[in-house]
Amino acid sequence: MLNVNEVTFAYQNKNTLKSINFSVEKGAHTCIIGESGCGKSTLLKTIYGLLDLDEGNIYWNNEQVLGPAYNLVPGHEKMRYLAQEDHLMPYTTVSENIQKHLSRQQAEFSEQRTQELLEVIDMTAFAKSKVKNLSGGQKQRVALAQVLAKEPELLLLDEPFNFIDNFRKNKLRRDFFNYLKKQEITCIFATHDSTDMLGFADQALVMKEGELLANDSSENLFNFPPSKYIASLFTEVNELDLQLFEGFKEDGKVLIYPRELTVAAHGNLKVNVIKSYFNGSDYFVEANCKNSALVYFNSDKLLDEFSTVTIYCKEELLIKRLQKD
Ligand SMILES: Nc1ncnc2c1ncn2[C@@H]1O[C@H](COP(=O)(O)OP(=O)(O)OP(=O)(O)O)[C@@H](O)[C@H]1O
């Protein structure tokens, strides 16, 4: 189990992590999400022991993680950390890059283990290719195999799928996280991509400006977003006065995703269409409503510019999404 207690850290005088507290159970997959510069990479580095904390402490299985001031070789031996930039050997093959990271005990069955890892990252066909000839996404997959090679207890991954095209990403993520579950490897990964969080994280940590805003399941955060910032991590979101909806007189704002508003003959919100954007399965529509607030919703049909339509949102959803403050 990982325990992060009141962790505070500043680069020079810039406070980057502010009293961060959370824990991660063995075998759990935890995602750190938040806007660029909020401190995700810095948090991963502190957990790995690459930075000396200003305040607080970190424990992995009751053993304190110490920074470079206390360790000749920074980085905890039971953990593996994958930074955003890769550290592959360009002039050797994919297999050799993986084998270099196997432990001594694994050396006698290195062929078999390398083969197993090549399958996890779907790179069997590239085993003998030189790394310098691979694409950015392929290199990222080799880097993932390297950090798995020594069977770490805790994996720390910084944006592990950001160079991988959507075409391969889905299968890779399923294979990769299923492998981690099977081996009971705990994993903490930083991402910008909410689909990484929704599909593959047991626990989501939301950061903003060095603070931990939320620690919950991604399902809860999606269904009951505590703020617009958190809802916006998933998709575009409407923040509207509840009073705009017919039948509601209470003050307060509601957070509603565009897909939760549908065009209906007897809707509860009248809007004027500004523009429709085709997105493959339907149209994403930008519109204005009574107080000239912008509203976004999805429509099966192309809606004419300047036309007036009514849209509908379920009343129980409006009540559920009423923001507390
Ligand atoms: N070595 C450094 N020296 C000084 N400031 C740094 C250093 N590394 C990061 N920072 C600053 O600390 C803040 C947090 O950076 P960090 O890389 O942790 O953010 P992040 O959430 O991982 O961002 P991104 O999503 O863009 O990777 C940023 O303002 C960044 O400019």
TrEMBL record:
Gene Ontology terms for molecular function: ATP binding
Keyword Transport: yes
Protein name, per record: ABC transporter ATP-binding protein
Top-rank taxon: Bacteria
Residues in ABC transporter domain copies: 2-234
One Pfam family hit: ABC_tran
Presence of keyword Membrane: no
Keywords of this entry: ATP-binding, Nucleotide-binding, Transport
First and last residue of the signal peptide: none
Species for this entry: Mesonia aestuariivivens
PANTHER family linked to this entry: SPERMIDINE/PUTRESCINE IMPORT ATP-BINDING PROTEIN POTA, SPERMIDINE_PUTRESCINE IMPORT ATP-BINDING PROTEIN POTA
